[in-house]
Write a structure and sequence with these properties.
GO terms for molecular function: DNA binding; DNA-binding transcription factor activity; transition metal ion binding. This is SirR/DtxR family transcription regulator. The structure is a single chain. By secondary structure, the protein is mainly alpha-helical. It folds into two domains: about 15-85, Winged helix-like DNA-binding domain superfamily/Winged helix DNA-binding domain (Arc Repressor Mutant, subunit A), CATH 1.10.10.10; about 90-145. The protein is about 50% helix and about 5% strand. The protein has helices at about 20-35, 45-50, 55-65, 85-105, 115-120, 125-135, and strands at about 70-75, 80. Strand 1 (about 70-75) and strand 2 (about 80) form a beta hairpin. It is elongated. The chain starts with about 20 loop residues before the first helix and ends in a 22-residue tail after the last helix.
Length: about 160
């Protein structure tokens, strides 16, 4: 057992993650995934389809995230992450990547995205680091450690 893990609360390594609810983080993650490699805005329709939610739910959540400074949302033009939103989405993506890679490479099991997201979001920080120690495969393109290309992953 290693003592090299960061100490503190389960989300101390991820500034601001403890301040957002799972649903907020899910939307930030979705926007990040949908906008990878593009500076353009993501449409509400794309988000609705990705998350399988109603158009009204997307509009309501984007208004809340805009109010909190996590996204720049313009009705009929779409949404993009702010620097704060990008930071949070990146932290969530890192956790998602570790969980997905662990289950795939170590347990030879493929998780549905929503399950991997939920595990990554709720797993204590030390748990994420323990999984990371056991993963030696390239990460998914959504991993912030991959430089968004999937080719330079540090995991």
């Amino acid at each position: 057992m290693s003592s090299d893990y960061p100490t503190g609360s389960a989300t101390s390594h991820f500034p601001g993650l403890s301040e957002v609810e799972r649903s907020n983080a899910r939307y930030l993650f979705a926007i990040s995934v949908l906008s990878t490699g593009s500076a353009e805005r993501v449409t509400t329709g794309e988000i609705r389809k990705y998350l399988d939610v109603t158009p009204a739910s997307v509009t309501e959540m984007l208004a809340k995230l805009d109010e909190r400074g996590f996204v720049d949302y313009e009705k009929y033009r779409g949404v993009r992450l702010t620097d704060n939103g990008e930071e949070l989405a990146s932290r969530v993506a890192w956790r998602f990547c570790i969980v997905t890679s662990f289950f795939d490479s170590v347990l030879d099991t493929t998780l549905e995205d929503h399950t991997a997201f939920d595990i990554g979001f709720t797993l204590p920080e030390k748990g994420v680091y323990r999984l990371r120690e056991r993963v030696n495969t390239p990460c998914l393109e959504t991993c912030p450690e991959s430089g968004r290309s999937g080719t330079a992953c540090l995991v």
